[in-house]
Design brief:
It is a peripheral membrane protein. Pfam families: FliM (PF02154), FliMN_C (PF01052). By secondary structure, this protein is an alpha+beta fold. The chain has two domains: about 200 residues, 3-Layer(aba) Sandwich (Chemotaxis protein chec); about 55 residues, Surface presentation of antigens (SPOA), CATH 2.30.330.10. It contains ten helices and ten strands. It is extended, with a radius of gyration of 34 Å. The two termini are about 55 Å apart. The model has no long low-confidence stretch (mean pLDDT about 80).
Length: about 325
């Protein structure tokens, strides 16, 4: 393990302080021992490494972008969603942090065990509902008096928006099949896991028109326990290396490429003249090209030289015969 190396000036100053009595050697030993002791709270057990938290944050960055696009299209309004933070805390602390009355959607995420919670701030939920019903997106917090129609509309809005995008965001790790199981407004009625169970809370900063608030995603440790090894950078890099296209995908892409139209032209030659000569050009004037008559011409594909050709005729039409392929930079490939 690498150690801190003192400079010569620091060593001289330390020896001088010890010899003059300004610093005690025993005191240095005690300070060194104190540094080795760290406070650990067993109620806030850290079950996820920093690497795994970064992977979860990366997944939900993608989820936030997908969700922004979906809600912007559905509500025909400016919607911006971004990851504000990703923390691991006890479940009890998460429940205490959410408002007494809020929008809570509980999803099962087969084939993973357990369930996850989406907590949507009422300001955001009502702004979306107002836009859905043709309003300007005004925020109104009357969560304790939700009508059956409002409950149904909100459930459908978040169910359709979250399920497909959540599946796509997690597709690089697992093929998830989420289902909305409960719609609640009181967090005290939800007891997904024990109070001390570690959960990952992903907070999404959300703006709908002029209204803003948070969408919090609570993911218990038990849900991710079976796929924790896949949340490492090593797994992601290995997965990228081993990922190969299926033969049918390659064939489909090849067929589409073959149907693409290209602009092909043949360059007869080049010449340089002055602007004055250009201005005095008249009918039947002759411009001498630098191209020799016995040299092959260049065929350009999308204005890039790709082949050498020779001119001729085929069935009374002007044609060219391909002689060779030009390498990158216009150099001829000797075959």
């Amino acid at each position: 393990m690498a150690e801190d190396v003192l400079s010569q000036n620091e060593i001289d100053a330390l020896l001088s302080a010890l010899s003059s009595g300004e610093m005690d050697a025993d005191q240095l030993k005690e300070e060194e021992e104190d540094k080795k002791v760290r406070v650990y709270d067993f109620k806030r057990a850290l079950r996820f490494s920093k690497d795994q938290i970064r992977s979860i944050s990366r997944i939900h960055d993608n989820f936030a972008r997908l969700l922004s696009t979906y809600f912007s299209g559905q509500l025909r309004s400016y919607v911006n969603i971004s990851v504000a933070s990703v923390d691991q805390i006890p479940y009890e602390e998460f429940i205490r942090s959410v408002p007494a009355m809020t929008i809570l959607n509980v999803y099962s995420v087969e084939p993973l065990e357990g369930r996850i919670i989406f907590e949507i701030n009422p300001n955001i939920a009502y702004a979306m509902l107002d836009r859905l019903l043709g309003g300007r997106g005004a925020s109104l917090n009357k969560i304790e008096n939700l009508t059956e129609i409002e409950t149904t509309l909100m459930s459908q809005l978040f169910e359709k928006g979250i399920i497909g995008n959540l599946t796509e965001a997690w597709s690089s790790v697992i093929n998830m099949d989420p289902h909305l199981e409960e719609f609640e407004v009181n967090p005290q009625f939800l007891q997904l896991v024990s109070p001390n169970e570690t959960v990952v809370v992903v907070s999404l900063d959300t703006t709908v028109g002029e209204s803003s608030g948070m969408i919090n995603i609570c993911i218990p440790h038990v849900v991710l326990e079976s796929i924790i090894p896949r949340l490492s950078v090593h797994y992601w890099m290995q997965n990228e290396k081993t990922k190969e296209r299926k033969p049918e995908e390659v064939a489909l892409i090849s067929n589409h490429i073959k149907k693409a139209n290209l602009d092909i032209s043949v360059q007869l030659g080049e010449s340089f003249i002055s602007v004055e000569d250009l201005l005095h050009l008249r009918k039947e004037d002759i411009i001498v090209l630098e191209q020799q008559i016995d040299e092959p011409l260049k065929m350009l594909v999308e204005e890039e030289p790709k082949f050498t050709v020779q001119p001729g005729k085929k069935k009374e039409k002007i044609a060219v015969q391909v002689l060779d392929v030009l390498e990158e930079g216009g150099e001829q490939n000797d075959k």
